[in-house]
Amino acid sequence: MISRWAQFLLLVSSARYSLSSTIVPPLYRYDDHEQCLQSNSKAVYCVLVINLKTDTVDPLDSIRIELGFRRNELEWGVCVADCEQELAGFSESERQRWYYAKFTINHRNLFPTNYWPEKVEPYNLTYGKLLNSCVNNRLQRDYNLTQLGYSEIGYCIHNDPPERQNTGLDWLTVLFLAIVITLTTSTVGASAIDLFAGRHVKGNVVVSSFAVKRNWMRLLQDPKTEFYRDFVYIDGLRVLINICTLALHCSMLGVNMSLDNPEYVEKINKNRLTLVIASMTPISVQNFFVISGMLLTVHFLRDIQRTSTFDLGYVRTKIINRLIRLVPVYYFFLLFSLVGDGLVSEPLSPNGQKNVILEQRICWKHGWKNFLFVNNLPANEEKCFTQGCYLAADQQLFIAALFLLALIWKFPRKTKALLWMVVIVSVIIPATLVHLLSLESVLPVRLCVTKFLQYYQPFMSHIYQTSYCNIHAYIAGIIVGFLYHQTRYCGLNLDGSRLYNLVKKAPPLLIILGPIPAFLYYEYEIPRPSWPTTLHFVLYHNFGVVFGSLCFIHCFRNPPGQLRQFLSSRSMTSLGKLSYSVYVLHMPLLRWMINYIPVMVQVSFPKILMLFTATVFASYLLGLAVYLVIEQPMCLLLRHLFFETQDVKSELKAVSMIIMVACCVNM
Hints:
Layout: H1 5-10, E1 28-30, H2 33-38, E2 44-52, E3 73-79, H3 80-86, H4 92-98, H5 121-143, E4 149-158, H6 170-196, H7 199-202, H8 205-210, H9 212-220, H10 226-231, H11 233-256, E5 258-259, H12 262-269, H13 272-279, H14 282-307, H15 312-339, H16 350-371, H17 388-410, H18 415-436, H19 458-464, H20 471-489, H21 498-504, H22 506-513, H23 520-523, H24 531-557, H25 562-567, H26 570-576, H27 579-595, E6 600-601, H28 605-643, H29 648-666
Parallel strand pairs: 1-3, 5-6
Antiparallel strand pairs: 2-3, 2-4
Helix pairs in contact: 3-5, 4-5, 6-15, 6-29, 11-26, 11-27, 11-28, 14-17, 14-20, 14-24, 15-16, 15-17, 15-27, 15-28, 16-27, 18-20, 18-24, 20-24, 22-24, 27-28
């Protein structure tokens, strides 16, 4: 999931650039799809990718990271009826003169058509040659271009109702609607019972779980334990990181749209500061892993100190608790992505087709990997529910960390040796992959692949998203957790540690040697694989983890300052409890928002800011509803069903009672 945070930050300073396109022919050109589809019930609108034959060497094929768009690859939306009218006066031989045969290209220009063959294959047979000739006629007529191109159909939209039937998958829509109705009815019924019923009924676990008033109080309550006081600021920190993530994804999907001024974005990306900031975007994900490893270790050491026992039952309980926390919201929105356009009757815009429908089709094929939390592995290039890659990696690292902690508990005298061994392995694995696969040493920013949402970036699939290349962050969190426990309960004095004092001085040097040289890979052809490149990757890949870990150590060793007091405030901690729901739902929400944005967009700072503001506001508002209706109720109910001793059948009867009461109230 790569981002364009730098674009968002620097749009203001780049406002002097023109907002009108100067690239000829335009990289994006779209006929009015609404007018086209409303012309008659059989109207067809197709989005084409046009490859222009060129004898020059493509600069994007250089070993240097080229961040611009391909000038010889166009994306045009064409109304078939208009093309038929334009070529009506041409003879067959004249049409054939405009036709250009397919030629070989050395890069990917389309998503695989097997995800939606019904949107490509029949139209390619019927309109392929017509659209090819039509586009070449327009290139010469409108832009005086003698160079011809070959047009491939990306997808077509048809008004014909049978095309909109999701044959064989309607049951998914029924299932999704049934879940929505059940959750809504249970919430309404439980809330009504909580307000008006007697004390005995109020004590029912289902009522307690689904009552909105009680969940609202749980959202606002502030636990007073010593552990929570030491780490309360993390909830507020999650809010800041989440907002940054939303900004990144708004920028990424914004650039993914059809731009009326693509050269504007190119000029922003060529700024060296932009490239340096973009190279630092993995820090947020890495430090989420640090937080997870730290909290897991602190809880583990506290539990072991209390019970002095460790068995498979403890591991099973930890994993079940985690799945109870993750699964309800994650599976709900994964199902929402599988349903796609089944919830609306009108055809989606071209933006919706490539952001909503394509996501749906990818999920039909690869969604099972999300259900098993293995969707972050590089086995498949197209990802279903892209932001789920982080959850999969985190789940895998959580289980691996439990195994490591079990070894440490079993062999306490080998703790330092085990941690050093894992640290070395966590550095060697990603560095070896970068060297063997000839990858860049920094996260690359290439505008030519933004339309693929970074699916085909080897660095993304092999390094950024995989769990085994993020072990270092989780291990850093485990080490911080150990240091917290030893400092709090065993009298450890870190100031007397030479290693700690040495590492504490490292961040400035790591920042200078890590992200700052990133712009060099865009300006020079730095060979890879090479040992200097691999060494730079090691510095680049670890600087954020070292910096974040030192910050967490500083926090538990020193009293809170103004920033930590702000992050620990009730408003920030309450918003922090919504972070998981907001993270899971923001991408589906953003995809649907983009469906209603005009197809051709002139990107500018005010427009990106408006999209970002609307996304943050809508995500947290919807996140609150999801927290009150799905996340908190299902966590409480499932924990009760898994871990309490009461009869499960009685709880199911209670659920039925609530649903019946709610139905009566609604009637």
